[in-house]
């Protein structure tokens, strides 16, 4: 357990900082301007996302939790005794607890998350809650190949990817991620994955335009983070949140809209914004049960089971590699 709790080596942190500045500068030089959504999740952003999951309008978390709770026994029955649960992007592990409580035969829980500090805190909390469970956090960008702890080399692995995080990938990248996950989890591995579904536009719109403006603060935190970490001078009051459903692409798009013509400087680079110009900060793709199953098959996985809620708003898929 001591090795698992060791902090990331300094080189990794430097690499992460360099990648952040490189992606932000390249994204703001591009037309239209964009910044990858994975940068939402510094500690402040992770906490804001937790707040989003508790909003009345944000149905995905609540509905998926219902599906997990209702089917926890059936899910646990699909997980071989002694296997390790590998979660991609653990957040606060709230949904994981449902699975961990039902699957008492697991040998280890491996949360993989880019927010290193938040990850450690959550891991420590889980160790107290599940004293017999080996919690082995991995601070990594799970969109890249990463190494699982060496102690798990001979143990069957189960992938867990709840929350419809897969919706953040462009569909070809989603297939790429599934293929990569299949390689790190191994042949015969099981994957349990939550996927948000296409539904009436009013419900989709409300989920990303909440009355309390938490989603707006989450979106704007990206600019605050650039100011904090990359010596940026974004004036947060001169940008506003925009989110809408694009039918053609079957995705929610989030943008930050410049309220005025302005110039922003970041790490010695300067960027001009026209009034109304946007930074595209997120895509959140929505699928049908069948369109997701087709994507999974294309990526080498066999869909063996799917659960949805009674409204058909969210789906939980079981895939075998
Ligand atoms: C974490 C990617 C699933 O797309 O719904 C929530 C992120 N963005 N509100 C989503 C998000 C705005 C969320 N995912």
Automatic annotation (TrEMBL):
<dbReference type="InterPro" id="IPR035094">
    <property type="entry name" value="EgtD"/>
</dbReference>
<keyword id="KW-0808">Transferase</keyword>
<feature type="domain" description="Histidine-specific methyltransferase SAM-dependent">
    <location>
        <begin position="22"/>
        <end position="319"/>
    </location>
</feature>
<dbReference type="GO" id="GO:0032259">
    <property type="term" value="P:methylation"/>
</dbReference>
<dbReference type="InterPro" id="IPR017804">
    <property type="entry name" value="MeTrfase_EgtD-like"/>
</dbReference>
<dbReference type="GO" id="GO:0052706">
    <property type="term" value="F:L-histidine N(alpha)-methyltransferase activity"/>
</dbReference>
<dbReference type="InterPro" id="IPR029063">
    <property type="entry name" value="SAM-dependent_MTases_sf"/>
</dbReference>
<dbReference type="InterPro" id="IPR051128">
    <property type="entry name" value="EgtD_Methyltrsf_superfamily"/>
</dbReference>
<dbReference type="Pfam" id="PF10017">
    <property type="entry name" value="Methyltransf_33"/>
</dbReference>
<dbReference type="InterPro" id="IPR019257">
    <property type="entry name" value="MeTrfase_dom"/>
</dbReference>
<keyword id="KW-0489">Methyltransferase</keyword>
<protein>
    <submittedName>
        <fullName>L-histidine N(Alpha)-methyltransferase</fullName>
        <ecNumber>2.1.1.44</ecNumber>
    </submittedName>
</protein>
């Amino acid at each position: 357990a001591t090795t698992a709790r060791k902090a990331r080596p300094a080189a990794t942190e430097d690499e992460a900082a360099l990648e952040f500045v490189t992606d932000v500068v390249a994204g703001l030089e591009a037309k239209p301007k964009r910044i990858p959504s994975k940068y939402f999740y510094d500690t402040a952003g992770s906490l804001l996302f937790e707040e989003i999951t508790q909003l009345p309008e944000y149905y995905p978390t609540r509905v998926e939790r219902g599906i997990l709770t209702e089917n926890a026994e059936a899910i646990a029955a699909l997980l071989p005794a002694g296997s390790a649960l590998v979660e991609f992007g653990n957040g606060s592990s709230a949904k994981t607890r449902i699975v961990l409580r039902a699957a008492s035969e697991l040998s280890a829980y491996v949360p993989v998350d880019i927010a290193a500090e938040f990850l450690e805190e959550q891991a420590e909390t889980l160790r107290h809650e599940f004293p017999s469970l080996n919690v082995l956090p991995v601070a990594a960008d799970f969109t890249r190949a990463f190494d699982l702890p060496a102690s798990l080399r001979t143990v069957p692995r189960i992938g867990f990817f709840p929350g419809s995080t897969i919706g953040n990938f462009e569909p070809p990248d989603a297939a790429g991620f599934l293929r990569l996950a299949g390689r790190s989890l191994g042949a015969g591995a099981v994957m349990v994955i939550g996927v948000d579904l296409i539904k009436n536009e009013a419900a989709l719109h409300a989920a990303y335009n909440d009355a309390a403006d938490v989603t707006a603060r989450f979106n704007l935190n990206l600019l605050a983070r650039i100011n904090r970490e990359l010596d940026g001078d974004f004036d947060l009051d001169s940008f506003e949140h925009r989110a809408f459903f694009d039918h053609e692409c079957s995705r929610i798009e989030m943008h930050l809209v410049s309220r005025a013509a302005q110039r922003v400087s970041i790490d010695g680079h300067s960027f001009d914004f026209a009034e109304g110009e946007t930074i595209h900060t997120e895509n959140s793709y929505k699928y049908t049960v069948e369109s997701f199953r087709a994507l999974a098959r294309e990526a080498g996985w066999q869909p063996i089971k799917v659960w949805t809620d009674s409204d058909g708003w969210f789906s939980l898929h079981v895939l075998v590699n």
